[in-house]
Amino acid sequence: MRIGTVDLPNRFVLAPLAGISCTAFRMLCKENGAGLIYTQMIDAGLISSKTAEEVNKFLNIQDMERPVSVQLIGSEKNILVKAVEAVEPFADIIDLNVGCIEIDYLQKGCGAALLKDLSKLETNLRAMVDTTEKPVSAKIRIGWDNQHINGVAVAQLVENAGASALCIHGRTADQGYAGKVNWTIMKQIKEKVKIPVIANGDVTSYNEGVSLLQKTGCDLVMIGRQAQHCPWVFHEKQVDIKQQILRFIQLYEQYEVRQSPVEVADHVFWMLRDLKTSEDTKKVHLIQTIPRIIRYVNRL
If DSSP codes are grouped into helix, strand and coil, which group holds residue 68? Predict the structure, then answer.
């Protein structure tokens, strides 16, 4: 499988998870079989104002994660172009977010708001494609609401603008993350474009991912919220959850700049969801140092 010039080792993709996809988490997902890693969504205005050294430190992408797609969100062409120039040295693929439903971004005309302004979407994407030699992609939803399902038209626009791939979240912006994913629209989109299509939405296991690929005919499948709790969702093998958590902390201590016990505790709590224990795992949030969090996990 290939996106533009970038070879992918398999068909499973880690979604851009805001507030979750730190470097250690991305690395753990990679170790567990994610073929393509997305960074969390990055504000184009924020990243475009940084120096190359600051961008490198901010992204903190390690070689073992690659290939990595850096996702940008923005609505102004000139700012997006500057952001592409800023991340290009560090990204393998550059993605435009056309699916975010956070109200602050919608009010700025970003994310899913671009589903209602297709001329602007096309202008922005063409400008991004023209700015870089790296493959450019877009992550969209199937439409704004049930009365305006335009996923096929948007997908064709994305392809015509020169994008090398497309990711489709099978819900409308109005749905948010509720209701069922519309895999029929994903299938229709795949049939109408020639570029690789990534299917996204409600995949909670490796086998469900394989099933979604079969139902839609899509080329790749993206997993988001389930990976937050189970970074090992990218394969079928049984895992030792405690060992996975300890490995995350090891990666965090080695590669993260922040060294935040609060951030570590959040990830530990999320990954403890499926561990059978009588312990109240919320207590991990009360622990104030990383070494004490390690001792807590070892005692479970």
Answer: strand
Residue 125 reports pLDDT greater than 90: yes
Please indicate, yes or no, if residue 234 is contained in any of the structural domains: no
- Using alpha carbons, select from 107, 119, 120 the residue that is nearest to residue 77: 120
End-to-end CA distance of the chain: 41
Check 100, 110, 218, 230 and give the catalytic one.
100
Q: Label residue 278 exposed, middle or buried (CB < 10 Å: 0-12, 13-18, 19+).
A: exposed
Assess whether 100 carries a catalytic annotation: yes
Residue 98: strand pairing partners: 140
Which CATH number belongs to the domain containing residue 69 in this structure?
3.20.20.70
Structural domains counted in the chain: 2
The pTM assigned to this predicted structure is: 0.95
Q: Is residue 224 located within the same domain as residue 130?
A: yes
Same-domain status, 223 and 245: no
pLDDT in tens, 259-287: 999 999 999 999 999 999 988 999 999 99
The alpha helices in 225-260, defined as continuous H runs, are 225-229, 241-255
Residue-wise pLDDT for 136-194, tens only, equals 999 999 988 888 899 999 999 999 999 999 999 988 988 877 778 888 999 999 999 99
| Model confidence pLDDT, tens digit, residues 59-111 | 999 999 999 999 999 999 999 999 999 999 999 999 999 999 999 999 999 99
Q: Torsions phi, psi of 97, nearest 5?
A: -80, 120
User: What is the DSSP code (8-state) at residue 114?
Assistant: G
Are 8 and 222 within 8 A, CB to CB?
no
| Residue 158 lies in domain | 2-229
